[in-house]
UniProtKB/TrEMBL annotation:
Domain of life: Bacteria
NAD-dependent epimerase/dehydratase domain segment(s): 4-213
Coiled-coil residues: none
Name used for this protein in its record: NAD(P)-dependent oxidoreductase
Alphabetized CDD domains for the sequence: SDR_e
Pfam families: Epimerase
Length: 328
């Protein structure tokens, strides 16, 4: 079965192509940028290009997108062109070519304003029942693309699974306060508690989704490391996250101190992956407990795949104010 991977020069696309090639599976990578994992260079907005690349394909993983870091540098129309029109082209050509399963990489950013509770409120428990409130063009267009995917399942019977992935990029945080207060490794280890997934686990979820799509039909799933927290922790997480972590992981303080690391003082949301684990049979391996094990042994808490893919950035230029500009 030939698989088509869009965005093959990006973090997730490259990771998928690496794993598929290593497994000897027939995979074709497409991207607007040439790379060692890109078989055809072109845009998903170009319908003729999409049609040519879709021939003989039986499964699609659509990871190509304009991301949040592009909000400050790209016009809204480009987000609509790539994230919405490009997705429509892929869906229509998938149906025309008899594709059997379609996996769309979405983002927890679609939840938008729903992720941040009002002052004094507990941290938000984010599962698939939370209603998205997109707060920028990235979230709006990703949610619109999700809705197109659902429409193509209902009207054209194309099996589609939407995976709302949390953070897996290795680049420094866009927040200057986080960058100034925490090393990148420290911040990203902290995020495994509530808002990060290792790219190896993200890949495994996508590969399982390819196999499960025909049986499920349509579904949306949050893809994030398994949180150690429970709903009863939410009020205290917002006030004093370190105390909650200390109860769950008594050894964390000493292990962090050995590296000069700190926990975040407050956590405002917790991503819940229970439905993805149940529906897909997904077993994410990289979580906060594993990160502590890595600190104990002196190893890197990231997966070998994350290290192999490395940092790519989102722009050709370098910005003085941070890894990328942030739209107000």
């Amino acid at each position: 079965m030939t698989l088509l991977v869009t965005g093959s020069a990006g973090h997730l696309g490259e990771a998928l192509m690496r794993e598929l090639r290593a497994a000897g599976r027939d995979a074709v990578g497409i991207d607007i940028k040439p790379s060692a994992f890109t078989d055809h260079v072109g845009s998903i907005v170009d319908r003729d290009f999409v049609r040519r690349c879709m021939r003989g394909v039986r499964a699609v993983v659509h990871a190509a997108t304009l991301h949040k870091p592009h909000v400050a540098t790209h016009p809204h129309q480009e987000f609509i062109d790539t994230n919405v029109t490009g997705t429509l082209a892929l869906l229509e050509e998938a149906v025309a070519n008899g594709v059997q399963s379609f996996v769309f990489t979405s983002t927890t950013s679609t939840f938008g304003a729903a992720l941040t509770p009002a002052p004094g409120e507990p941290a938000a428990w984010i599962d698939e029942d939370v209603v998205p409130i997109p707060k920028n063009i990235y979230g709006v267009t990703k949610l619109s693309a999700e809705q197109l995917c659902e429409l193509f399942y209902r009207k054209r019977r194309l099996p589609v699974l939407v995976l709302r992935t949390s953070r897996f990029f290795p680049e420094p945080d866009d927040s200057i306060d986080v960058r100034n207060g925490f090393s990148t490794a420290n911040a990203q280890a902290n995020e495994l508690l509530y808002r990060r997934v290792d790219i190896e686990d993200a890949v495994s979820a996508h590969l399982l989704a390819i196999d499960r799509a025909k049986d499920i039909g349509f579904g949306r799933y949050i893809i994030s490391a398994t949180t150690p927290f429970e709903p009863s922790d939410l009020p205290e997480l917002r006030r004093d996250a370190a105390t909650v972590v200390a109860r769950r992981f008594p050894e964390a303080a000493a292990l962090y101190a050995s590296r000069g690391w700190r926990l975040f003082p407050h956590i405002d949301r917790v991503y819940v992956n229970a439905r993805a684990r149940e529906a897909l049979g997904w077993k994410p391996r990289y979580d906060f407990a594993r990160a502590l094990d890595a600190l104990r042994s002196g190893a890197d808490f990231r997966s070998p795949l994350a290290e192999a893919v490395g940092s790519k950035g989102y722009h050709a230029q370098v910005f003085e104010q941070g890894p990328y500009p942030v739209a107000s």
